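Quiz preparation item.
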C-alpha cells in the first residue's frame, strides 16, 4: 500500500509539473502534440543530468518524446520544460484509435528522445538509460506505464558563450569566450553586438562596454553554423553630495538633505558622537552628541554605493552648534475659575514672549478651569532660542458627561438614569422620581433632564443636561371586514395604515391571505406596525371566507334492478346555493330538474346502454360546484360505497371518518395503502384513524374503503387522501454577546409556520420583526440590566392551532467608564495618592507623561512618585486607561494633572515622550510610533487574550526624533484581542489592540 501511495503521489506531482510547464513556456517549433486518453508517465529526476555534449541543459530548455507518424516521420508525443531546479516528468500520449490518423505512440513502440536548446534554437537527439526500479521500461511506450530516466545524454553541433563577468561597472573590461562542441574542430568565429559597434573573429575577444550589451557569436563548422548570445550588464558609478555646511542651536537636530545618482545604498557617518535617525537615508535627521555639543561642531559625511561592481562615492559637510541662552521663569500663584485677568511676568532675561498652551499671551484670563502650561521663550542675537516652563492652576469645576438625546416609546418600562459621569449625582426634571424616568403616553414630547454633581475634592458643583424624547405609539388603522370566496386566489393584504407593518392570523403567510388555508368562516387578522423609533401598535379586522356551493349527488354508483325504471335521488344533498340543476348523459327525464331530490325516469336508450350519468350542479355568487353519480342498470345488486372527501388534519390530531357511506354490502374493511397508522375498527363505516410516524413524515396517507356485496357481484373500493399538516418549530439561535453600542444580528430558523414574530422582554426594538433574519436594537433598560431575552414565535398553519417559541439570551457588555480624579498640586518631594473610579473594565492601566513611577500600574488607588523630569517640568499628566471587556473595543481614558510647586530653570531641549500604536483595529501590519526619547533600546512584548506570549523583541535601537516607526506583521496570528507592552528604559506603555483579518 505504501508503494502504491508513493507511485500515485509521484504521478500526480509529475502531472502538475507538466501542467505548470505548459502554462509557463511555449513549445519549441514543430513540437506540438495531441493529448490522448492513453498515457505513459516518464520521470526525469535532477540526477539524470540531461546534457548536450556534456553541458547541462539550461532552465527553459525542453525535453520531448517522439513517435513515427503515418508518413514515417517523427512527431512529438509529449514534452516538458526543464527547470534545472526540480524533478519533473513527461506524459507520453498513445495513439487515439478513434481518430483517422496516428496521433500518438502505438503500444510497445520505441520512444525517441530529443532535447531543444533555446540558446542556439536547435534540437538534439538524445540517448537515455532507464531507472529499473520503476515498473515500466523508458525505451518503449507502455499504455498506462510508469518509468523513469537514469541518464539523458544528447550530442551534436553545440555552442556555449561565457563571459568573465556578466555584471561590470562602466569602464571595466570583460573577457568573452565562445566554446563550440560536437563539430570537426575547424571552427571560424564572427562576433557582433547590440547596440552595434563591436566585431571580432577570434574565440575569446576582450570588450569594454559602456552600456548593457548583448554579444552574439556565430560559429561556422564547414557548411554548418550556429549562433549563441550573452548579455553583459553595465552599471553606472554612484555620486554623492552631502549638501552645504549647516548651523543649528544647542539641543536642535540637523535636517540633512543629501543627493546622489546611480546609488542604491547610503550611509551617513559623523566625526563626533551624535546619532542619525536613519543613517541609510539621504534625507535624515542628525542629533548632536555630548562631544559635539562641547566641541561646537562635527563633520558629517555621506557615502553612497551603487552596483556591487562599482566603487563607493563620498562627500562631507561641517555642522556648527551654537549655545542656548539661560532662561528662567518664576512660579505663578494658583487661581480659581472666574478670577480677574493678570499680566504675565517673571521671565528672565526680559524681552521674551509668554505662551499659554501654545498661544502668545500678554494678559491671562483664568475664567476657564484647568492647568495651563506657560512657556517663556527668549531668542538671543545668534537666533538661538530657549525657554522656561511653568504652570497656572485654575481649580476646575467637575467635568460631567451627560448621555446624548435619546428616544423612548411612551409605553416603555421606567428608565433608571445612571449613565451620566461621574456617578453619584442627582437627576431632575419632569417625569423623574428618585433618579428614574417614567414614560407616560399621556405626556408626549421632549423632556429636558438635568444632572447635578458636586466634587468631593474641590466642592465645586456643575451640571449637564440632556433630553429624553417620549414618542407616541403609532396610530394604526385597519380596514373594514373583507369578504372573499373560498376559491379566491391568495392575495396580498392591504388597507391597514401606516404601510410597512406585518399582517398575521389564520391563513396569513408573508402578508398573503390564502382562503383555502384559512377555511370557510370569519377569521380575525391582526396588523402590527413598528415605527422608526421602535414603537409598536396594532389593530385587527375580519376576513369572511364565503363557501362555494356544496353539492352531493349521492352514492357514486346507483344500481337499478330491472324491471324497475325509476331512479329515486333521495340521497342527494346541497347547501350554500342560489339555484341547482340536474342533468343526464342519457335521454331520460326528471320530474323536476331544479330541486335537490327529484326522480329520474329511465328511457329505453338508457336501459339499452346499461349505464347513465346524472349530474347535480349548484350555483352561487362564488361560482359553481358539481357532483355526479353513475346509474348502472343491472340484474344483480353490487355494493355501493363512498369513502368520503379528501381532508387534512394536524399531526397531533386523529381523523373521525364521518363522511363515508355504503349500501348493499355484507362486510366492510378499511386499509391505509401501506401507511403506518391504525383504525380503531377497520370493519365499521365511520372509524377513527390515528396517523403513524411515517404518515406524518410523508405528509399524507391514502385511506381505502372496500365493500363485499350481498349478492355474487363484484367487490368495490373507494379511497380518500388524508393530508397531515405538521406542527410549527422554531429555533431562535445561540446566545449572543454584543457591546452596548452595537445592534444584535439575529438569524433564527423555523418550519411549518404561517408566520413568525420576534419579541423581547426588554425595551429595545426589532428591525424586520416578522423575518427570520432580523436586527435587535437594545433599549436603555436593556443596556442597564446587561441582559435581555429575545423570543422567536412560530404560528401554526391551519388546521394546526397555537404557536411555539424559542428564546435566546442577549448579553450586553457595557463600555468602560473612568474618572482619574481631580487635578492636584504638590510640593517638591511629595508623592501623589491616587483615588480614581472606574467600572465595566477588563483591566486598568496608569501611565505618565513624565518619568515618575506608580506603586502599582493596575489598581485604582496607587501612589505616584514624581521623577527627575517631572520635577524639572514642574509636573506631569497622569492617564488612567480602562480597557473594555470583550467584545467591546473602545479604550476610555481620563487624565489628572499633577503640578509640582517649585522654581527651576528648564532647557526646552526635548519634546514630550510619546508612543502611538495604530491602526486599531487592524488587518495586517501594526505600527508603533515612538518620539521624544533619548537614544536608547526599546523592548516589545505581545500577549494573546489567554496571557500567552506570542511575540518578543528587545534591543531595538531608537533615536531622539519625531517619528521612529516599528512595523510588526500580524498575518501569521489568529484573529482576536492582543495586549501590546512596550518598555523603553524605565518607561512602560501598554495598549489593547484588535486584529481582524
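Solution:
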Amino acid at each position: 500500500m505504501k508503494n502504491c501511495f508513493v507511485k500515485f503521489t509521484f504521478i500526480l506531482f509529475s502531472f502538475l509539473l507538466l501542467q505548470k510547464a505548459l502554462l509557463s513556456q511555449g513549445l519549441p517549433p514543430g513540437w506540438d502534440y495531441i493529448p490522448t486518453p492513453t498515457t505513459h508517465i516518464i520521470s526525469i529526476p535532477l540526477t539524470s543530468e540531461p546534457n548536450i555534449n556534456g553541458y547541462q541543459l539550461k532552465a527553459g530548455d525542453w525535453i520531448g518524446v517522439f513517435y513515427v507518424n503515418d508518413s514515417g516521420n517523427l512527431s512529438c508525443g509529449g514534452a516538458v520544460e526543464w527547470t534545472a531546479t526540480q524533478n519533473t516528468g513527461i506524459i507520453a500520449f498513445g495513439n487515439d484509435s478513434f481518430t483517422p490518423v496516428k496521433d500518438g505512440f502505438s503500444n510497445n513502440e520505441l520512444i525517441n528522445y530529443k532535447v531543444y536548446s533555446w540558446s542556439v534554437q536547435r534540437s538534439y537527439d538524445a540517448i537515455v538509460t532507464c531507472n529499473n526500479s520503476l515498473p515500466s521500461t523508458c525505451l518503449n511506450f507502455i499504455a498506462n506505464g510508469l518509468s523513469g530516466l537514469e541518464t539523458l545524454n544528447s550530442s551534436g553541433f553545440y555552442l556555449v558563450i561565457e563571459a568573465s563577468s556578466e555584471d561590470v561597472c562602466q569602464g571595466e573590461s570583460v573577457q568573452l569566450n565562445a566554446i563550440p562542441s560536437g563539430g570537426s574542430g575547424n571552427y571560424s568565429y564572427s562576433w557582433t553586438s547590440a547596440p552595434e559597434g563591436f566585431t571580432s573573429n577570434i574565440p575569446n575577444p576582450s570588450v569594454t562596454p559602456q552600456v548593457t550589451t548583448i554579444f552574439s557569436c556565430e560559429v561556422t563548422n564547414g557548411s554548418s553554423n550556429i549562433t549563441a548570445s550573452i548579455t553583459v550588464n553595465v552599471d553606472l558609478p554612484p555620486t554623492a553630495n552631502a549638501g552645504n555646511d549647516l548651523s543649528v542651536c544647542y539641543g536642535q537636530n540637523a535636517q540633512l538633505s543629501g543627493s546622489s545618482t546611480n546609488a542604491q545604498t547610503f550611509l551617513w557617518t559623523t566625526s563626533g558622537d551624535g546619532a542619525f535617525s536613519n543613517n541609510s537615508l539621504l534625507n535624515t535627521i542628525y542629533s548632536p552628541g555630548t562631544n559635539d555639543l562641547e566641541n561646537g561642531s562635527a563633520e558629517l559625511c555621506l557615502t553612497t554605493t551603487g552596483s556591487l561592481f562599482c566603487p563607493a562615492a563620498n562627500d562631507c559637510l561641517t555642522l556648527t552648534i551654537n549655545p542656548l541662552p539661560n532662561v528662567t521663569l518664576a512660579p505663578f500663584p494658583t487661581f480659581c475659575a472666574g478670577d480677574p485677568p493678570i499680566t504675565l511676568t517673571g521671565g528672565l532675561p526680559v524681552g521674551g514672549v509668554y505662551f499659554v498652551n501654545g498661544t502668545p499671551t500678554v494678559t491671562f484670563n483664568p475664567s476657564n478651569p484647568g492647568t495651563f502650561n506657560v512657556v517663556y521663550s527668549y531668542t538671543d542675537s545668534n537666533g538661538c532660542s530657549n525657554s522656561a516652563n511653568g504652570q497656572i492652576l485654575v481649580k476646575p469645576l467637575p467635568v460631567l458627561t451627560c448621555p446624548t438625546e435619546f428616544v423612548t416609546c411612551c409605553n416603555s418600562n421606567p428608565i433608571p438614569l445612571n449613565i451620566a459621569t461621574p456617578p453619584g449625582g442627582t437627576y431632575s426634571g419632569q417625569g423623574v422620581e428618585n433618579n428614574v424616568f417614567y414614560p407616560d403616553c399621556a405626556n408626549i414630547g421632549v423632556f429636558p433632564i438635568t444632572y447635578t454633581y458636586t466634587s468631593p475634592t474641590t466642592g465645586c458643583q456643575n451640571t449637564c443636561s440632556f433630553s429624553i424624547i417620549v414618542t407616541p405609539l403609532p396610530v394604526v388603522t385597519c380596514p373594514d371586514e373583507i369578504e372573499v370566496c373560498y376559491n379566491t386566489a391568495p392575495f396580498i393584504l392591504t388597507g391597514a395604515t401606516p404601510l410597512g407593518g406585518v399582517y398575521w392570523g389564520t391563513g396569513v403567510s408573508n402578508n398573503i391571505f390564502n382562503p383555502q388555508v384559512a377555511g370557510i368562516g370569519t377569521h380575525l387578522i391582526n396588523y402590527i406596525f413598528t415605527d422608526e423609533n421602535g414603537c409598536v401598535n396594532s389593530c385587527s379586522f375580519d376576513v369572511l371566507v364565503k363557501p362555494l356551493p356544496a353539492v352531493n349527488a349521492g352514492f357514486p354508483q346507483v344500481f337499478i334492478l330491472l324491471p324497475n325504471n325509476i331512479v329515486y335521488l333521495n340521497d342527494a344533498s346541497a347547501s350554500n346555493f342560489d339555484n341547482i340543476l340536474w342533468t343526464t348523459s342519457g335521454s331520460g327525464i326528471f320530474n323536476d330538474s331544479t330541486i335537490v331530490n327529484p326522480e329520474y325516469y329511465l328511457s329505453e336508450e338508457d336501459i339499452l346502454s346499461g349505464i347513465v350519468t346524472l349530474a347535480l350542479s349548484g350555483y352561487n355568487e362564488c361560482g359553481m360546484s358539481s357532483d355526479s353519480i353513475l346509474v348502472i342498470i343491472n340484474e344483480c345488486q353490487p355494493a355501493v360505497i363512498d369513502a368520503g372527501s379528501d381532508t387534512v388534519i394536524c399531526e397531533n390530531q386523529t381523523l373521525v371518518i364521518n363522511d363515508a357511506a355504503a349500501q348493499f354490502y355484507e362486510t366492510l374493511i378499511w386499509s391505509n395503502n401501506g401507511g403506518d397508522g391504525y383504525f380503531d375498527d377497520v370493519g365499521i363505516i365511520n372509524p377513527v384513524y390515528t396517523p403513524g410516524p411515517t404518515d406524518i413524515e410523508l405528509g399524507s396517507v391514502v385511506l381505502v374503503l372496500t365493500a363485499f356485496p350481498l349478492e355474487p357481484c363484484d367487490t368495490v373500493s373507494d379511497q380518500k387522501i388524508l393530508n397531515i399538516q405538521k406542527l410549527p418549530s422554531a429555533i431562535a439561535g445561540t446566545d449572543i454577546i454584543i457591546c452596548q453600542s452595537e445592534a444584535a444580528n439575529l438569524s433564527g430558523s423555523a418550519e411549518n409556520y404561517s408566520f413568525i414574530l420576534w419579541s423581547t422582554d426588554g425595551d429595545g426594538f426589532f428591525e424586520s420583526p416578522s423575518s427570520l433574519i432580523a436586527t435587535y436594537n437594545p433599549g436603555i433598560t436593556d443596556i442597564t440590566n446587561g441582559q435581555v431575552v429575545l423570543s422567536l414565535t412560530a404560528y401554526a398553519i391551519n388546521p394546526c392551532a397555537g404557536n411555539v417559541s424559542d428564546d435566546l439570551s442577549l448579553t450586553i457588555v457595557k463600555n468602560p467608564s473612568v474618572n482619574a480624579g481631580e487635578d492636584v498640586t504638590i510640593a517638591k518631594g511629595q508623592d501623589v495618592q491616587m483615588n480614581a473610579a472606574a467600572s465595566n473594565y477588563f483591566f486598568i492601566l496608569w501611565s505618565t507623561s513624565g518619568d515618575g513611577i506608580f506603586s502599582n500600574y493596575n489598581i485604582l488607588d496607587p501612589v505616584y512618585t514624581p521623577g527627575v523630569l517631572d520635577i524639572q517640568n514642574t509636573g506631569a499628566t497622569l492617564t488612567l486607561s480602562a480597557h473594555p471587556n470583550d467584545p467591546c473595543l473602545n479604550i476610555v481614558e481620563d487624565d489628572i494633572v499633577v503640578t509640582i510647586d517649585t522654581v527651576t530653570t528648564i532647557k526646552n531641549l526635548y519634546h514630550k515622550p510619546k508612543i502611538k500604536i495604530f491602526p486599531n483595529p487592524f488587518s495586517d501590519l501594526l505600527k508603533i510610533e515612538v518620539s521624544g526619547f533619548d537614544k536608547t533600546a526599546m523592548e516589545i512584548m505581545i500577549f494573546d487574550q489567554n496571557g500567552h506570549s506570542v511575540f518578543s523583541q528587545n534591543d531595538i535601537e531608537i533615536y531622539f526624533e519625531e517619528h521612529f516607526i516599528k512595523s510588526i506583521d500580524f498575518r501569521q496570528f489568529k484573529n482576536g484581542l492582543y495586549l501590546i507592552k512596550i518598555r523603553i528604559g524605565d518607561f512602560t506603555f501598554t495598549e489593547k489592540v484588535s486584529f481582524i483579518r
